[in-house]
Structure prediction request, 346 residues.
Amino acid sequence: MQHCNIPIFIPHMGCPNQCVFCNQRSISGRKSFDVRTVREEIERALQTIPAEAEAEIAFFGGSFTGIDRDLMISLLRTAQDFVDAGRVSSIRLSTRPDYLSEEILGLLSHFSVRYIELGLQSMSDRVLAACRRGHTAEQARWACRAVKEAGFSLVGQMMIGLPESTPEEEEATAREICALGADAARIYPTVVFYDTPLCALAQAGDYTPLSCEEAAKRSARALRILCERGVPCIRIGLCASEELVSPETVYAGPNHPALGELVWNAYYFDEVRTLLAREKLLGRRVILSVPEKAYSKVIGQRRANLSRWYAETGTEICRVIADKKTNEIRVFPEEYRNLKEEQPCI
Prediction:
């Protein structure tokens, strides 16, 4: 069944902290919030969702469990009305690890909250301090365990390329997200927005924003860990909006409209290179068989991976087959010419 979120953004509400990277008004593409319009906003969104799809109301943007308690309950009740009417299936919310408690989790259990997304960002205390995050890795671990023990599904959000962060620390964060029982994860390469402390650091030369290529490579390393442990990555990069691509909003960083695709391209480049080495086919002419649904991700945008495999390993992919019957990538020497060709790319 198709799943659709109805996002309700509450930019920076409930969060007095100022992380160096944060400008929630830009990230959400919204400058203000009016609770009176929430019901109308949900109604409008439902008109665009197919009747057979599973819809979910999702409170994103700010730290939902840190907003005024009466406002939080009012929003939950509004969302619950749509659940009770059978028009949406559940409620999703995002918050900070240090804005959860057993009392809050107990309150949420009275509503049809299914997913709680935690902005973990990093599990390195050194990186969290550099970002002025305001909580520790141990607080994040407690929050993850508490969410699971209370019976909610957990989504761990992590960031790539934060100040002081290394690829190794990002991989360690991905491993912890899995070990803590996350049901899904999101990966956000760091984008530098104007009017943030991080922008000031970048302008002063004290922080180097990631290029799209570097962001894709580092994100792919974290993505591999999630995939190996069976934790689906439900989002890579910020949601596209006019605000996010505007030069008036973004100073620097990997704010690419197809960043998720670039990350998957990098992921599959490494997967195939590893497979070629294991099968002792590096430097030869080969045929690649890939799952049909992963076809474009494997060959890369504008077939970039085909060129990279040749440039970096001397391996010429002379034919790519999109196989409808497998979820496995396979590679064969060119002499296996009798393979059925369903959708060649070259």
Remarks:
- Residues 130 and 163 are 6 Å apart (CA to CA).
